[in-house]
Amino acid sequence: MGETTWLFGLPCSGKTTLAEGLVGPKTIHLDGDFLRDTLNTDLGFLKADRTENLRRAAGMAEVLNKQGFDVVASFITPYESQREMIREKVSDVAFVHVKAPIDVCEERDVKGMYEQARKGKIKNFTGIDAPFEVPEQEEDVLEVQTATHSKKENLKEINMELNRKPEPSHVFLGRWQPFHDGHRTIIDSVADNRKGVVIAIRDTELSEKNPFTAQERKELIKNVYSSYQNVKVMIVPDIDTVAIGRRVGYSVVSVPEKIAEISGTKIRQEYEEYELLAGAHLSD
Ligand SMILES: Nc1ncnc2c1ncn2[C@@H]1O[C@H](COP(=O)(O)OS(=O)(=O)O)[C@@H](OP(=O)(O)O)[C@H]1O
Ligand SMILES: Nc1ncnc2c1ncn2[C@@H]1O[C@H](COP(=O)(O)OP(=O)(O)O)[C@@H](O)[C@H]1O
């Protein structure tokens, strides 16, 4: 049985952006705009139409959950009664109120709709001339603030608060001599969302090219990722070949060239200036 995370909030509050950061390998993303362009082209924005739109979306979420898929739904879902209906229809649903002040949403105006609504060219626009019922405090809803917190912070909070388990996903194998910004950029690109990450450290012999012990590197990397529940760090033997079979359920991806240019050699030269040569720092 899968679970549904239902993001709701004003237009341009950040629902779609956060939903995209929450999807994992077995997650289906149901988005208001997408459904309205496909399945729900017959519906408008009066209250009854919105309720029907959400009834269909909730039905789909439940069907998908029953088949083992997680669902992330991103819809304005403006009325309390609509959120209640969704709770009744979807057995395992957690609500996230994606919050930003209306003036921030209006400033973002990703699709220029607030401007059109202000000019009266779009009627019944949520936040302008159609209501958005803010949830009662006691309601069982997680709130995230997108005007004052970054996407990365919001995603971390959602994953932590909803206790969503990360899916195992990427293994990064390397010497990490030392672990630097280039490594971080690559790993962060997947460590930000629900995917699990394993950082495997090759247990190299100390040399000029390998000045740090595996244990030292492990401590350093663990410190960097101390707040990430989905990152595991482990030491592996100094393997020199990775052998893979075809169609065994995983893919091998290359590092983007721009990031590959960040050089460990250059960084080691800087360390040498401080006499952090092979093991020299260990003898004290
Ligand atoms: N009148 C009016 N009011 C609100 N939104 C409007 C309207 N007309 C078009 N749009 C666009 O439709 C997107 C919201 O659709 P939803 O399915 O999420 O809305 S609802 O939950 O049924 O209320 C919404 O997308 P988001 O900005 O992603 O929320 C708008 O792009
Ligand atoms: N912390 C944040 N979380 C999500 N979006 C943010 C955040 N900060 C700024 N934004 C920006 O706000 C805009 C929200 O747009 P979108 O995700 O389409 O909202 P919605 O789906 O609610 O209409 C995007 O341009 C996004 O980059």
Automatic annotation (TrEMBL):
Catalyzed chemical reaction(s): adenosine 5'-phosphosulfate + ATP = 3'-phosphoadenylyl sulfate + ADP + H(+)
One Gene Ontology term, aspect cellular component: cytoplasm
UniProt keyword terms in alphabetical order: ATP-binding, Kinase, Nucleotide-binding, Transferase
Residue ranges of every copy of the Cytidyltransferase-like domain listed in the record: 171-242
EC number from the UniProt entry: 2.7.1.25
Classification via Pfam families: APS_kinase, CTP_transf_like
Annotated ranges, domain APS kinase: 2-139
Pathway of action: Sulfur metabolism; hydrogen sulfide biosynthesis; sulfite from sulfate: step 2/3
Family: Belongs to the APS kinase family.
Protein name, per record: Adenylyl-sulfate kinase
